[in-house]
Amino acid sequence: MKIGFAILLDNESHNYARKLELELCKNFGLCWGLKQSPHITIKAPFETEELDPFIEYLEDLAKEIVPFEIELAGFNYFEPKTIFIDVKENPKLKELHSHILKDMKEKFGIEPNEFEGENVKFHSTIALEDVTEEKFKKAKEYLKKYTPNFKFKAKTLGLFYYLGDDAGWIIIRRIDIKS
Cβ distance 140 to 83 under 8 Å? Predict the structure, then answer.
């Protein structure tokens, strides 16, 4: 099975992202974002045979950390197929990510992937599709009328579980940060 960890967006940011995802789906056929709840990945997907140790890990982690502010501002892109709301540089988010990577290696023997650690770019994806360059360009142009800018306290962690290409990812556990 494949799982990953994320910070779930607050209600206002979540609803805004969903609105944009739906518009991109209706107008450009960019519907991937609707297959999973808006989030910020803090541990990229990895393979495992067991789920319970990772549920326990996230529950313990949620007791250790204190809610912290996250700012979402503007759009950015991983050309040529990913559109996302940018996460402003955030030392606490980076520290949490590093802490998780260290724990994953020490406790479970899981190595970071190439987009983690020093290479991490925190974001909240709203579209990820194999589309024509023209369609991608039109979607980017369409989004110019929006200026996402949200601040919220990171209060909820999510454990994502991959159901396969047809079904996508689901959240199988929501865990509130306790501190």
Answer: yes
CA distance 45 to 133: 27
AA letter at 157 = L
Alpha helices in the chain (DSSP H): 11-28, 52-64, 91-108, 133-142
pLDDT of residue 132: 81
Q: Which CATH number fits domain 2-151: 3.40.50.720, 3.40.720.10, 3.40.50.300, 3.90.1140.10?
A: 3.90.1140.10
Separation of alpha carbons 82 and 103, rounded Å: 29
**For residue 179, pLDDT beyond 70:** no
Would you place residue 31 in the very low, low, confident or very high pLDDT band (cuts 50, 70, 90)? confident
